[in-house]
Amino acid sequence: MLEGCREPPQTGATRGTTPPMSGAAFVACANHEGREAIGVCVRCRRRVCTECTTKLDGINHCVDCFAGLAAEQGRREVRVRRDGPAAALVFAALGWAAASALAWGALELLLPGAP
Q: What is the model's pTM?
């Protein structure tokens, strides 16, 4: 038996488990002892079954690491939206344009025949 491998379950296959193969090593999922691992998470190196893995760009991630990636991505997006004076300048310019258009429209209504 390979180092780090578990013995296959002797009770037979149940729903959601992989039946043991004769003569083959059974490597169990880190979260489900009765399920065969089909991959390894690239971040934490835990073995994962089909239910516990999420592939992102062809790379296996376990549930915990994938949730961590999502949280990191969310923080990155929020940080980008708040950074720098460029966003403030864009909003100021849009506000000025909207105020000018409203003022122009008001003048057109008040002074319809003015040159």
A: 0.43
Strand runs (DSSP E) across 1-115, as ranges?
39-40, 47-48, 53-56, 59-62
Residue 71 — left, alpha, or beta (φ > 0 → left; ψ -120 to 50 → alpha)? alpha
Residue 94, domain member (yes or no)? yes
Distance, in Å, from the CA atom of 29 to the CA atom of 35, rounded to the nearest integer, reads 6
pLDDT of residue 17: 54
pLDDT score recorded for residue 1: 38
The total number of structural domains that make up the chain: 1
CA 7/CA 91 separation, integer angstroms:
63
Q: Are 32 and 52 in contact (CB under 8 A)?
A: yes
Range 64-74 average pLDDT: 85
